[in-house]
Automatic annotation (TrEMBL):
Lineage: Bacteria, Pseudomonadati, Bacteroidota, Cytophagia, Cytophagales
Annotated source species: Larkinella humicola
Gene behind this protein: folP
Protein name: dihydropteroate synthase
GO BP terms in the entry: folic acid biosynthetic process; tetrahydrofolate biosynthetic process
GO cellular component term of the entry, any: cytosol
PANTHER family, alphabetized: FOLATE SYNTHESIS PROTEINS, FOLIC ACID SYNTHESIS PROTEIN FOL1
Pathway of action: Cofactor biosynthesis; tetrahydrofolate biosynthesis; 7,8-dihydrofolate from 2-amino-4-hydroxy-6-hydroxymethyl-7,8-dihydropteridine diphosphate and 4-aminobenzoate: step 1/2
């Protein structure tokens, strides 16, 4: 009998139903993210942007202070913490029911963010850049997004050689997932890691075979929003990549994505509505 993929997330007692896919809105508290429209420069701006995303239908907000675009500059843990904690605290004050994800690969940042009210840890490194991350998250008892990446944000473009892309990615994720489970981590989401240690052609291959990630008994998160696979292929800029994002998000939904991580919430919610209505017709 085939395994039924988990369709809920327990966010510290608040259960998020994923029977219908949901949207995670991106809030970047830095000046180095590849898409300028996602950058937050003040707490007030974060509150305003979060309010808009929530009104447009975002179920989760992902707060990040460390830019992970290829070649991005490294920053200290202290600076990352100073960028994200005031925003998390302010959003919780203004929106008591908000569900916040902390986008970090550092266990100390994850711990302090969760203590401040975040209910989900989104680690682009899949536990490869901080040996304390898995143990920390297991102890915090919050869901963890296990993303596939090789190298670091500064070096990942040099780690794109695979024997067989999709089986290799699945294997590497399975190894990390087994370690997480051995530590008692219950709630895990899988992110194939579009754009991280993958060429544009490899990203298309990954999306084309996204159904393969249904083998994990976990929800699947997809982050394709305005990434270079879109704008380099179309010979445009990130600012012009919304239509391309919607096209790829639609394909991801058809192939089983449960969460879309996006800069543009309304358009992603509309894609979900149309795809789910088509699938239920």
């Amino acid at each position: 009998m085939p395994k039924v993929k988990k369709k809920t997330l327990n966010l510290r007692g608040n259960v998020l139903d994923l029977t219908t896919p949901v949207v995670m809105g991106i809030l970047n508290s830095n000046a180095d993210s590849f898409y300028a429209g996602s950058r937050i420069h003040s707490v007030d701006q974060a509150i305003e942007r979060a309010g808009i995303m929530r009104s447009e239908g975002a179920s989760l907000l992902d707060i990040g202070g460390y830019s992970t675009r290829p070649g991005a500059a490294d920053i200290s843990e202290e600076e990352e913490i100073n960028r994200v904690l005031p925003i998390i605290e302010a959003l919780i004050r203004h929106f008591p029911d908000v569900r916040i994800s902390i986008d970090t690969f550092r266990s100390s940042v994850a711990r302090q963010a969760v203590e401040a009210g975040a209910v989900l840890v989104n680690d682009v490194s899949g536990g490869t850049l901080d040996p304390r991350m898995f143990e920390t998250v297991a102890g915090l008892d919050v869901p963890y997004i296990l993303m596939h990446m090789r190298g670091t944000p500064q070096t990942m473009t040099r780690h794109t050689v695979y024997n067989d892309l999709v089986p290799d990615v699945l294997f590497e994720l399975q190894q990390q997932l087994a370690t997480l489970r051995s530590l008692g981590q219950k709630e895990v989401l899988i992110d194939p890691g579009f754009g991280f240690a993958k060429t544009p052609r490899q990203n298309f291959q990954l999306l084309n075979q996204l159904e393969a990630f249904q083998t994990f008994d976990t929800p699947v998160l997809v982050g394709l929003s305005r990434k270079s696979t879109i704008w380099r292929t179309l010979n445009i800029q990130p600012e012009d990549a919304l239509n391309g994002t919607t096209v790829l998000n639609t394909l991801a939904l058809i192939k089983g994505a449960d969460i879309l991580r996006v800069h543009d919430v309304r358009e992603a919610v509309e894609a979900i509505t149309l795809v789910t209505n088509c699938q239920s017709a």
